[in-house]
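I had to read the description of the data format several times before I understood it. Each protein is reduced to its one-letter sequence and a matching series of backbone shape codes. The format is easy to grasp once an entry is in front of the reader. For illustration, here is how one protein appears when written out as sequence plus structure tokens:
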Amino acid sequence: MNKLLKHTLVVLSLTSFYASAVTIIVHPSNNASLDESALKKVFLGKSKTFPDGAQAVPVDLSGGQARTDFVENVLGKSESQIKAYWSKLIFTGKGQAPKALDNEAEVIKLVSQDPNAIGYVSDAAVTDAVKVLAKY
């Protein structure tokens, strides 16, 4: 019985890990490809363009599991670290945080309407109105 319980817990933890995948999305006409380093630079305000020179406009979520997963797994920071990072840049006048939207539907809508936008949502939220750039 103990062995069955351990096996069940492992399966459940793996399922929740894969269910919370974060998907990076862009406008369907965007042909950019970004590696993880370039993606971090765009979302941390260190780069303002896609590799082809087109303007990159990052779109953030204001909260939720997709944001937590993105900040931790893609940016490599905790929520408090990312807040401190942007507070410092804003205070010194060296940067402005990406526009933060309240939910994934709003991110998808904005990205689907703006060829320069790049955002992220949970894998389950993706629609055919946007193009998938990467999954983490």
Residues 40 and 75 are 6 Å apart (CA to CA). Helices lie at 2-19, 36-43, 65-74, 79-92, 104-113. Residues 4-18 have pLDDT under 50 and may be disordered.
